[in-house]
Amino acid sequence: MSELRFQRVLLKLSGEALAGKKNFGIDPETVSAFCREIAEVSRLGVQVALVIGGGNIFRGMAASAKGMDRAQGDYMGMLATVMNALAVQDGLEKEGVQTRVMSAISMQEVSEPYIRRRAIRHLEKGRVVICAAGTGNPYFTTDTAAALRAAELHTQAILKATKVDGVYDKDPMVHEDAQLFPRLSYIEVLNRRLGVMDSTAISLAMDNNLPIVVFNLFETGNIKKVVCGENIGTIVEG
Ligand code: UDP
Question: Part of which pathway (predicted)?
């Protein structure tokens, strides 16, 4: 296992990624494709914890902008992440990977409660732990949940999968001359308001010395490249 750069990682997948070409919902083919990639690194012996977003189904902030109570909307957003988690569990199990969905909101018919020590035990046994329902608290995001779970599960890095190749000085979808940063410090990300993860998540990663690797999810083989130490995307560290 010496060729691995990371033995235990936290992979953050946004909900939108699961929607595929549609902007809403869950596209089973897209889920299968990601699950193949995740299964591949799990089979290499990497311990993988996943945090899944819910933005493909519901976002509390967007609903509150249209008059819904923010906390109520946020709980709905957290429930959306549980649906995504179950979809990814299905995809991973089809790949022959053992998984556990652990939810921050009790839902014992479909998931285990999130219990840190139990999550670590699952990881040690080679099971992919799918952390659902974010932090379990409104006014947070699944990015913050990713930083929190990474810290408490002692992962060596947060792998933040995105639609583009890494972090740029401006939006690469809009500006052709956008420059990719191979490396950034946490402070630079915060000061320049670069949209890597929200500021609560970045601060938590900074305080706990957790490197964040931002990379393109849509290029086959990228998760494996990151865990094997290939320098792709952007690394955010101290
Ligand atoms: N959410 C929350 N607390 C958390 C995590 C998520 O209230 O700890 C809610 C929030 O409404 C958020 C929604 O769940 O908008 C979906 O999560 P997020 O927007 O982070 O998903 P992503 O953008 O990664 O798909």
Answer: Pyrimidine metabolism; CTP biosynthesis via de novo pathway; UDP from UMP (UMPK route): step 1/1
